[in-house]
Amino acid sequence: QVQLVESGGGLVQAGGSLRLSCAASVSSYHMGWFRQAPGKEREFVAAISWSGGATYYADSVKGRFTISRDNAKNPMYLQMNSLKPEDTAVYYCAARDGSFSAPRSPARYKYWGQGTQATVSS
Hints:
Blueprint: E1 4-7, E2 10-13, E3 18-24, E4 30-36, E5 43-48, E6 55-57, E7 65-70, E8 73-80, E9 89-96, E10 111-112, E11 116-121
Parallel strand pairs: 2-11
Antiparallel strand pairs: 1-3, 3-8, 4-5, 4-9, 5-6, 7-8, 9-10, 9-11
């Protein structure tokens, strides 16, 4: 079985920071972060290849968020800085194996965590 567990969400003021973690039962998988607010589609945030050699970011978080992992070992992280109220969402960790084509597509990820809530106040 493949299990993913997110942690690190919480309530912060605009301009603050949060660091999300994702613990996985397996290593050497490509991984990503997605987020979803009520009434909205799940959207891509960031992704990282199994080796850590390739990273991808949504335009809305470039320069503010950083995805990282330690040589494909658990856990992996999403450092979120300069947070804005529009970043408020449930954040999900996801994993996939095989190729890393279309890394921004949620449909390509096979395994998902339960989500962790991040709320940014103004």
